[in-house]
Amino acid sequence: MTDDDATLHLPELPFPLRPHGPGGGWSYEDGVLTGRAGARQDRFVPPAGDALDPASDAPRLLAAPTGDFQLAARVTVGFAAPFDAGVLTVQAGEREWAKLCLELSPRRPTICTVVTRGHSDDANAWEVEGDTAWLRISRTGRAFACHASADGERWTFVRTFTLGTDRQARTALAGFMAQSPTGEGCAVRFDRITYRPYAPAGLRDGS
């Protein structure tokens, strides 16, 4: 099924996903969610910049999970230009969001995070081999946590943070994104999608 204006219902998720931002050609079939960022599409507010360019946006599919959760997927990216990425994201407000990325940064595939509170930070974690990695983003209370994995079994802690007010953090949207800040477009694929309605048992113990 595919429709840039339609709600997507994935059997792995207990809530619908709704498109935000420019059209991403989102499609779901046989357990695989695919989408594509267009040329120069990204969501990033430079730390030294004055404001978010209203044209700065990227295709997102977002939902409104309640309570603590874990959203994970195996992400494969059709890297073509620096900073192309497949992303798990949370969004608490217009200028309050975070991204956990498998990104070409700028020459090697890398696990990266960006947390935006008015302006964005940008942090690389580690390089990976190939075009595929497992990503997981979680909420625990009003905090969020990012993890990555080579096999979807043992998870390595990347960072923890919060966004906005207590209410904003607890009602934040979560989902999927594609970006191609410097290139002509980037295809992304998410499979092995899982959702759990509780936080990880420990943030730093591999669970």
Draw up the topology in text.
Blueprint: E1 18-20, E2 27-29, E3 32-38, E4 60-63, E5 69-77, E6 85-93, E7 96-104, E8 109-117, E9 119-120, E10 123-127, E11 132-140, E12 143-149, E13 156-162, H1 166-170, E14 173-179, E15 185-196
Antiparallel strand pairs: 1-4, 2-3, 3-15, 4-14, 5-11, 5-15, 6-7, 6-14, 7-8, 8-9, 8-10, 11-12, 12-13
Plain-language structure description:
With 207 residues, the chain is mainly β. It has a single domain, classed as Jelly Rolls (Sandwich). Strand 8 and strand 9 form a beta hairpin. The protein is globular, with a radius of gyration of 15 Å. The mean pLDDT is 94.
Structure in a nutshell:
This protein is mainly β and 207 residues long.
